[in-house]
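Q: Sequence in, structure out?
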Amino acid sequence: MKRVLFIGLGHMGGSLVSGIAKKAIPGVELYGFNKDVEQAENLAKKIGNFKILKNLQDLEKAAIDVIVIGVRPIDFNELAEELNQYNLANKTIISMVNALTLDKMDSAFAKQKDLSLIRMMPNMNASIQESVTALTSKNASEAQMNFAKELFQACGFVTEIPESKFATFAAIAGCLPSYVFTFYQAIVQYAEEHGFNHHEAMEIVGAAITGSVHNAEQNTNSLATMIKQICVPNGSTIEGQKVLEANDFDGIIKKALKAANDKA
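A: Exactly. Output:
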């Protein structure tokens, strides 16, 4: 039996717990701790198969094996100080705290012995079990990494990457939903300005975006070739494409990604 404690049950932590609970992975017991106890209890009522710890000192009594930290960066040091009051030997700590490197985690828990550290980064689509999540570690065993992958695959796609790529991953996957929503919103607004109601616009544009992504995934041609195939001479698509190119659409996207990458 693996007992997994989630510390921090905000939007992301709550979404991950909900997805994992829904999957009902055999041999996994879920626990949660949250400063806002009422929020934690409401989550437990909603998903079931989830126990709340009212104090962190109870993690020893509960024989927790894996601790998943999902607090704000500003709250991490205080949490680490409290956790260091307890014996965490042979446990695995998984952190999704933004910009918290493995070295910083190692330093924060330097007093602990035989502690395995994993860094993770999900995205907001965990709320519908379609997250894209990255994992990395420098001292976790293959079995521990496989368990982490199994755990978070309940919430979507999981990939293991070197930590050196985490900032770029943040830009191209962690932050990407916001940029996709911005693109989606602009097209929906245009449709509404030209006679479609909101529901119609969301449905049509959403299906077009989803279908385009699926087409690109299944097509053996490059994205550049697919663009050329649809931009036939004298057609309507190529006229819009010319506007995108004239305004450096690719460059704007890359500037946004670089800004996110640099911040991460």
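Strands lie at 2-7, 28-33, 51-52, 66-69, 92-95, 116-121, 131-137, 156-160.
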